[in-house]
Amino acid sequence: MTDTTRVIPDRLQSPLQRRVKSWESLLLAVAVAIFIVNSFMSPYFLNAWNLSDMTFNFTEKAMIAFAMALLIIAGEIDLSVASIIALASTAMGAAVQVGVGTPGLVLIGLGVGLLCGAFNGVLVTRLGLPSIVVTIGTMSLFRGISYIVLGDQAYRGYPADFAFFGQGYVFWVISFELVLFAVLALIYFVLLHKTNFGRAVYAIGNNPVGAEFSGIRVARVKFILFLLTGLMSGVAAICLTSRLASTRPSIAVGWELEIVTMVVLGGVSILGGAGSIPGVVIAAFVMGLVTFGLGLLNVPGIVMSIVIGALLIGVIALPRLWDKWRAHAAKG
Amino acid sequence: MLMQADHMPSTSGTQGTQGDIPVLALNGVTKTFPGVTALSQVSLQLFAGKVTALIGENGAGKSTVVKILTGIYQPDGGTLEVDGASVRFATAQAAGDAGVTAIHQETVLFDELSVAENIFLGHAPRGRFGLIDTNAMIERAREILAGIGANIDPRTRLRDLGIASKHLVAIARALSIDARVVIMDEPTAALSQKEIEELYELVETLKAQGKAILFISHKFDEIFRIADNYTVFRDGALVGSGAIADVTEAEVVKMMVGRDVSQIFPDRERNIGAQILVVDGYEHPTEFAEISFTLRRGEILGFYGLVGAGRSELMQALFGITRPSGGTVLIDAEPVTIRSPADAVAKGIVYVPEDRGTQGAITALPIFQNVTLPSLGRTSRNGFLQLAEEFRLAREYTRRLDLRAASLDTTVGNLSGGNQQKVVIAKWLATQPKVIILDEPTKGIDIGSKAAVHDFMAELAAQGLAVIMVSSEIPEVLGMSDRVIVMREGLIAAELTGDALTPETLVRHAAGI
């Protein structure tokens, strides 16, 4: 060993400095800008009840997006989430027909979500199949079961107290869903950023082989992530079914892409290994604000999806273009 | 130990036919990389219709030579000559145009394309409108394959062929561009005995066609069987060349390994204690069998062998990466079952892999997170991270290894190979293991870091850790090990200690001479 004992500093850049320069800051600026533009474009925007309604555009999707963010950071994906909602909602609807009460319905919703997540997880981690293929398959499978059970019918007749999950308010304009969203955001923030489990998720996403060689039980972690995504789909199914007070097999159709969009917009690398929960939270607000603002302006749904798509590409491309332009300018 | 003077036969004379000009030659070529001189003033001549064997240990500079000959690297000094005229291969394309082609250890072919497409990729015969003339391509592929005696349908998809047939396709590709110089880099490494015989016949065919062949191999039997000339490199320098008929195997071995090894390795106190690891009758369906050995505290046990002898596979089975099919492992006299690396770490066995980039480190994560990854159970509280504790552990172990980095928050990918290796070793020491397995611990790292790793291994052994070192570098094996197990083709070929431990015995047992 050399006798010059040099001390390596822990950090050169404080976590605060890093945060200021981060993706999340950029996204927050975008959210504020959209908020300001919206408030000028429509006189109805700056109204507490309208803003409260706005949050329903993203709360249910965001619940799933938190779990999806972890899954994508770990290098996997679950495209069956919207179909899990359909299957869970169908199961709850069927249970209502035989007189199951609200506590039973909640258990059924969560249970179906967990089972679907376990099914995906077993196929991916035990059989070693690629998750994108597995979950495209189960996307058709789960919703297919709903269609077989319901056809063009719908389940109704949910108990009155079941309505609280999707329609209830905890305090003034603060809905139960918004509170649940905030609590889940906090739980997932702690799970991803403050625990050993979260560290393992990042390690697996960056290098699954290296993680395995470092003594991490990679398959177990991935299986838990699929379980969590299924569970959150079950939670979202309870909220959405409660809000709509009915179940059709087309419930939540197309949500998987909006959820993945939310996750990617939040700065999670689609290749895995990077991303944060605060980013996803802000992205949820951005998407909610855009959808709501366009809704107030009576923009049709088709145009909305065009705007969301353009926003995603724009927000992701701009920093890269900026970097290229700066590198070009630096060269002279 | 001045072996060069004694054992280097004259470089002139019997190599080509009298007065022949080499098809391709390197004259006094030097190549340096940051911190490493890969080649120093080396010369090499390849003659038409002759097979020249290039011999050297791992790290002797063989692959650098191949890369210079094929235009991938540019030499820093010296000249390259084709037919006696000085040339410069600025790109791989330029080398190909000059008729130089290489068949690598893992040949770059395309599994999803047909055999004919693989042979003619980039120079397919063109028909009208500049479109590829598929029929002409298949016909010419058929001719070339028939010319080398390969019974392969050119329309077959490559993925449906075995490894030996793929080699033949690679050779056909080399011939399709009218190669004058064919470089074969360990062509027999993955072949069965029968396939090797077929390859020898093919080499004879190529010779008869007047191709100059550079044959790179570790295996002395095949060198002496098919080569006409030899060139030996050691540590990036030429130590001998001449006609193969003028030397014996023993002389070549001496040229290859001869070096004063005692100076550069730490003298250490041997403090060998109680037996800690006992492996008995360990076997794997394909990679190794009948492996039994013991390891004591404070001991450094070297594993030597040729590439493919099954050493890494054995270590990865001990570490729980692959599942053995039989045998027992005892740690501290307790039988253990290891099904995953997590199990191995829990039992006190850790493994520093050869492949740092993918297996050893998670290069996108910062240093401190890499160091603490297997020790999170100790640095955390109830599963919650404690950054201060993590930095403390990372600081302690990186300091012991004399890591050079801007900060502990630097991503590992930004470090040099030597410093990355220190991070991987620090990561495992932080788990306070009983047995540490180091697989080619100094491969591809600079001299300074090498010495640091060697010093540190000695220190670990002195502190009572049991060390297994897999190494293909003979000086390292001799300089560091208390005892050496030589493996050949998945079996233990010899266990050597004391006076039996010489470069010659190692090479003989490893090659089965």
Notes on the protein architecture:
The complex is a heterodimer of chains A (332) and B (513). Chain A has 332 residues and is mainly alpha-helical. Chain A is built from 15 helices and two strands. A two-stranded antiparallel sheet of chain A has the order 1-2. In chain A, β1 and β2 (174-175) form a beta hairpin. Chain A is globular and about 70 Å long. The termini of chain A are far apart. Helices cover 34% and strands 23% of the residues of chain B. Chain B has four domains: 1-11 and 19-99 and 179-259, P-loop containing nucleotide triphosphate hydrolases (Rossmann fold, 3-Layer(aba) Sandwich), CATH 3.40.50; 107-178, no CATH class; 260-348 and 434-513, P-loop containing nucleotide triphosphate hydrolases (Rossmann fold, 3-Layer(aba) Sandwich); 360-432, no CATH class. The longest helix of chain B has 16 residues, at 193-208. Chain B is globular, with a radius of gyration of 25 Å. With 513 residues, chain B is α/β, with parallel strands linked by helices. At the A-B interface, α10 and α11 of A face α11, α12, α15 and α17 of B.
Short description:
The complex is a heterodimer of chains A (332) and B (513). With 332 residues, chain A is an all-alpha fold.
Write down the oligomeric state.
heterodimer
The average pLDDT value of chain A, as a whole number, equals 90
Kindly state the mean pLDDT of chain B as a whole number? 84
- Say how many strands of chain A there are: 2
Strand content of chain B: 15-25%
Structural class of chain B: alpha/beta
Share of helical residues of chain B = 25-40%
Low-confidence stretches of chain B: 1-14
The first-level CATH class of the largest domain in chain B is given as: Alpha Beta
Strand order of the largest sheet of chain B: 6-7-8-3-9-10
